[in-house]
Design goal:
Length: 169
């Protein structure tokens, strides 16, 4: 009914909507891991897993870049090596994420735009050289607990995971 009685209002609303710049935010799922880790020391009871942090890695020869996500559990520092390796890190090559040697940066290319995720600084000390990769904050890695449902072909299984996401502002 609104469309028939107010055709000019609808046209103005559509024009205003198209004129508003759309957010170019990108969010994609990288990985899912189990929500608990059972240490090999102490009480050996399952402990909740959380994301400790992340960093970028580059392969200068191929121009590839990836993100490495580290996970932890509450007593990991207390148990040390006796508690086991802890949750395994996730290493993900994200489509569109690359190393640009000309700008010495980790770039994310998508939807016709390029975002600088990290800068790469070469450091040389005597005969050794190494690179440090400093995130710019434009690309973020976040994690959150998610409830999952899987059909086994016989029944429905419900479980929880820690899902990790790559986000670009």
């Amino acid at each position: 009914m609104f469309l028939r009685s107010h055709p000019i209002s609808v046209a103005l609303l559509m024009a205003a909507t198209l004129a508003i710049p759309m957010s170019a935010e990108t969010k994609m799922k990288i990985a899912s891991i189990g929500p608990q880790y059972t240490p090999k020391a102490g009480s050996q009871l399952p402990e909740p897993v959380s994301m400790r942090g992340y960093f970028f890695e580059v392969e200068k020869e191929t121009g590839r870049a990836r993100v490495v996500i580290d996970y932890t559990y509450p007593n990991q520092a207390a148990y040390g090596f006796d508690g086991g390796a802890g949750p395994q890190p996730t290493m993900a090559q994200i489509p569109g994420l690359r190393y640009d040697p000309a700008s010495k940066a980790v770039l994310y290319d998508a939807a016709g735009r390029s975002v600088v995720c990290a800068t790469v600084r070469d450091q040389k000390v005597l005969f050794w050289s190494r690179s440090s990769i400093v995130p710019t904050g434009a690309c973020k890695i976040n994690s959150q607990p998610m409830d999952q449902v899987a059909d086994t072909g016989w029944n429905i299984r419900r479980f929880r995971t820690i899902d990790t996401f790559f986000e670009v502002d």
